[in-house]
Structures are given as C-alpha cells and as structure tokens.
User: What shape does this take?
Amino acid sequence: MTAIAHVQTGPAAVPATADNLATACALCSHNCGLRVDVKDNVIVEVRADDSHPATQGYSCNKAYAIAHYVGHKQRVTHPLKKQPDGSFARISWDQAISEIAAKLNAIRAAHAPRSIAFAGLGGQGNHSAGLGGIPLMLGLGTPMVFTALAQEKSQHWLNDRRMIRGRNDIYLVPDKHHTKFLLLMGSNPHISNQGANPKEAMKDIFRDPERRMVAVDPRITETTRLADRHLRIKPSGDVFLLLALAGVIVQENLQDHAFLQAKAKDFERLEAMFSRIDIARMALLSGLDEADIRATARELATIKPAAISIDLGLEHGEHNTLTSFLVRVLSLMTGNFGRKGGNIFVQLFGPPMPFLENMTQALASSIEAIPALLPIPQFPPAILPEEITTSHPDRIRALVSDGANPLSSYPDTYRFREAFAQLELLVVIDPAMSETAWMADYVLPAPTGYEKWEMSIFPKDVIAPQVRPPVVSGPEEALPEVEIYYRLARALGIAPAAPAFLYTLARKADTPLGMAAYLAAVNSVAAAGITGGVGSVVARSAYLTYETLGPTLPNPMLAYVWLAVLGYAATRRDQIIRALPELKGVRNPLALALMLFRKLVDHPEGALLGHYEFERNLEYYNGFKDGKVRVWFADYARDLERLMGAEPEKVDPAYPFVLNGGLRTGFTANTIMQDPAWRKGKGPHAALYMAKEDAEALGVQAGERVKIRSRRGEVFAPVKIDAGTQPGHLHLPNMLGQRYPDPVTGELKQTGVPINELVDLMDRDPYTACPHTRRIRVRVEKVTEEAA
Assistant: This one.
C-alpha cells in the first residue's frame, strides 16, 4: 500500500501536568473563556477567565464539566472499518484514507459532484474542522453540506440576504447592554445563557428604573420573573404577536418616519398591509390580552433605544422565517435597526466574503442552500434523507459526517436511519463512538477540542477571536480534522505535492516582503494547469499553505488562521484601529497582519482585534448601493395576509398536547456530551414538564413514567409537575437520548429522551426547512414500568 502524504502524525503532545492554561468552553456557541489546571493529563480544575476580552470572567455551570467531554468510555482511539457481520475492525490510517479516497473517486467518476455530501464540519467552539473541510468540498465541486446552524438559524441569513444584501459573515443581535427597552422572545437567557454575560445583562435591566424588559414565553421562567411584563403567549403564537405590534405602531402612527424615509424602500406597501391588521384577532390567536399588546407596542416604538431578542423558541417554531422577518421590520419601523442599543450586526472574524448570487437548490424539495457564517451555502439537515432517497441520478451517495451526530441531533430519526442504510459510503469523523458512528462504514478518530489547536469564531459584540493550544494530550492515533482532510485531498488528487521552493519561501514568510513572495508563489502553483474552476484553485491554495507554511508555525492548523488574519488586516483596518489605535502608523497591511497573528498566538485567552462602529452599523453592512433596506417581498406578503385572516387552531383530540421539544436546562448540551455523569443535582434531568391540571387528568404523579406519542414515533419519560407550564403545553429538555455504557454491565443504555424520534421532518418551515421541534403535536399515556 502506498504511504499517504501527511503533515501531522498525531495529536499535539503537551505536559501531563500544568496550571492556569487558557482555553474556552466548547459546550455552546458563547465559548466563554476559561482557565484550567491539568494533572496526569486530566482536567481537574476549571475557572472562568477574567482576561478573556469578550466574556470577561463569565461562564455558566456547564463549563465546569468539560472534563467529561474529554474523558469517557466511548472515545474512538484508532481508525475503524465495518466488517460484513456489522462489527468493526481496527485498521491503519493509510488503509482508511486509501480506501475512502478510492470509493469517493469511484462515485465522482460515475456521478455528479453533488453525490458526495458533508454534515457538520465541526461545531460549537471547535471550528478548525471547517478550515480543512471547506477546501475539500470546493475541490470536489460539491455544494452539499448540512449543518446544525442551518437547522436553527438560516432564516436570519435568508432575510438579511433579501433585506440588505447581507453576506454570510454577519449576524443580527440585540444590543442588550445599551438598550433601554428589551422585548425578549423565545428564550430563557437566565438558564440558556443567550448572549454575552446574559445573567448580568438581565439583572442590569431589572435594577435600572429607566430600563424595561417585556418577556414573551408560554412558561413562567427564571427570566420572566425578572421582566416588567410577562406576555404568556400560546405556543407558536409569536407571529400573531409580531403582526399585532406592527399593526398598533402603524395604526397609532408611532413609526419612526424619518428613519424609514431615509433607510427603507417600499415600506408604504407594508404600511398599508399593517394598517388593516385586526389587533383583537391577533390577540385571540396569540392568547394574549389586547391591552398588554398595545402597551408593549407603544413602549417598543417610543422608548429609545429598543431591541428585540429572539432565540430557538421562535427559530424552531412555526412561521420561523416570517417571525425573523417581522423582527427586522419592527426594528426598522422604530428606528433601531443597525443602531447602538437596538438590533446590531456583528461579524465573523476575517475578510468580507463576496455575496453569493445563485444558491444551489435541493433536488427533492427545491429548498435553497443559504450561506450562514461559513463562506459556503448550507442546507438544513431536515432535507438530507430525501436527498439520499430521491430517484434523481444525482442523489447523495456518500456522506462524510464530521463533528455531528445526525441519528441523534437531526429531526426524524426514523427517516435518517432509513436513508443512511441506502448510502454507498458513510464516513464518520468524531472523538466519540456516536449513534451515527455505529452505522458508518469507516469511523475516524479526532481529538476533542482540548487535545488540539482550536479556535472559537462565533461573532460577538467585540471582535476578539481566540486561538487556543491543547491543554491535554489525545489518543495517539487521533488526527486533527484538518490533517484528515489534507490526507484525503492528496489521496483524491485534489491537492498536488508542493514543490520544494514553496517550503523555502514559507520559511521566510515571517516578514512583509517574504509574505508577499510566498503568497504569490502559492497562488501561481495552485492555478497552474487547473481545469476545475475557482473552487479547485482555492482548494489547492489552502492545502499548499497548510503543507508548506503550517510546519513553520506552532501548529500546522494555524496556516489557515494566518490566511484569515491576512484577509482581516487587508480589509478591516478601520475596526483594527478603533480597538488598537497604537497600530495606526502601520500602513502596510502585510506588516499589520503579521503583528495581529503574533498577538493571537501569544494570547491564547483571546485577543481584542477590532471594534465595530455601532453608530453607522446598518450603513456598514448594507450591501445595496442605495443604502435602503428592502421590505416588500410578494411571497412574504401573501403568507402574512393569510395569517392576518387566520382562525383559531382546533385541538386534535388524537394529539391534544403541544410539546416543546427542546427546553433549556442547566444540563443540556445537545450531543457533544456522551457521559451523563456531568449532570449534577437532583434528577431526573430528562423529565416531561407538565401542568398540574394535565397530570391530574391523566392520573399520573410526579416521577411516574409516561409514553409520549406523535405521528412519527414514541418515547418514554418521567413526569415533572411544573407550576410554570400552561395546561395543554409540555416541555422536554433537549437531552437527545444518546446511548452510554452502563457503569456495571457495560451495556449501552439511553441517557436522555430521543426527542427527534417524535419529529416529522416534513413539519418544517416552507422557506428554509427549519424543523418545528418546539411545536410537536403529541398525546400522553400513563404506562407501567414494564411497558416503558
């Protein structure tokens, strides 16, 4: 067997015992800065890091359990290949890469590039996987990638594309720290920790008599108790509330006319529609008091500045694209769109990416991929099964799942099992032997986010990327994802071997002149003899840089960070100087890039590299030449008109309850945590929250197990009587039912409730296919322990 080209031979080795190491929490998107102590290669102490430029000493309780993410009984320690009898055999990396590349090349030769797809590409605070995976996608020419982000939030990027010609690298957030009025919808940040230092932000509003907060939530929560007004809405009634707010503002002439005149295009068409909204009908449909709606609308319109915050409660509810749109419209109507204290755009670290004009459509549904954070269009996971099972000749035949667990975290588990059984090749790259890994043809071990060089790139209210070294050593045969993708690219023939002179130039790229010479040479080599278009050139450039520049840096992964810093320094000088005025005299962008790169590497706790100009936030990110926000879209208008005339929904006696399949608690972290021992306190943790009235009607007591049945499947859970839950409404924490070895028998046992077995993937948003996991129609039955 021919030896496979490589750059790294294994995970980075670090001292087995060390104190006060800078890192970050990888259990959610906020990536709070941490300090850890390590003893005998185990994280033994975790503290919030006061020196982190964004989180500044804040972290929630989840961060203190990161050792359970690193050390558990399901670590994959060497490459595995499935055998004919369903078992797995240990194989070498050379065999794994050679065989996978051969199978992928066979599919490429016989079918369209889109027959090969990717899922995941890293997640949470472990984003380096995408740095290696995206070039491989470009080199293969496939547009098919499915991400968790596209399962939750792609409606926001769709609306920003439509309304301001927004690029992939921006994200609209509420400026909670400067707002005077906050309308909070679809989240409980006191527990879910949404936003920067959320508990302090909520308490600051609560304590300040000049600031107000209105919380919209069907349930009484820790956050609603802090609110000045709690709008206890019906499940998925949010779109009707937002329509009512718009109607009141227009009908009472409270809109910011000057701002709309200067910043909006065709608002008069929306204005005419909103003038016809029946506020009383919207109050009925949302389950709210009309007087409360009117009071909230007046406060939103007259208190300056005002912000609207939404999260998964809306993003996984019905009409989630329209609610995202209406939030933006309300912010615009009140003069708070792209303004300090209102709703502001934050951005990904790096250069501005080009606006992608034409999006790939799914074969079965015609749903369009949407660029979201990553500079590539992404599809929602809900459509993945039908893209595999369709009869179209270009259907997906091979899938690389990287840092994702589709059989646990994607909607409608049954359909995913059926679809994955039809794949010709399933490759899983993961630190853990997940539910999806058990179905794979090959399982490739990766280090966790604490065993390799990593980076956190989610946008925050300051531009402060964190590039962090490993704090513990991983399994000897685990390879960072960037190395796995490089080896595949070489074996597939996508990346050529670098000529010797590139290595020589790379060693001199630590000066502006040397950097310029090196970049010119890389681009020349990458473009030589190319026939595959721009994507192929980008792929070759990326892998040539990784191969030649990478070994000159503290870790080869940093070659990709080096490129991102170069792009940032060349295009975002204004942001840099606002944060680092001492660099104003550095006019050469290459010299500036080298200084910023050194600052990043020298500060593993994170480095402040830029500040936004909040006073002209909208103008900075609006991609339309006339600077106007587009607000009239015929398809949205059609659907909003229909909702304005909607009738109250009738309860289906076969499925009388509405289940919120994703309640946030102090111990929910999606599927990244395998070992349930990380959950502290009195359980049960994965319980069904139910109103006392409903429990009495069903004849069940707290702690008794019940069967929860939807049209797609059934699950079992113990009952928790919850005084904050409305009758007819249920909640399940998003502990997604991973299987973990029993501490006594070693048998795999479910540690949570597999909510996605209840979800119908066809119950989804018509624009983005984001699933309605926060509104699942179910029935509940009392069962005996034996039946459960």
Q: What stands out?
A: The chain is about 35% helix and 15% strand. Residues 651-782 form a domain with the Barwin-like endoglucanases fold (CATH 2.40.40.20). The mean pLDDT is 94.
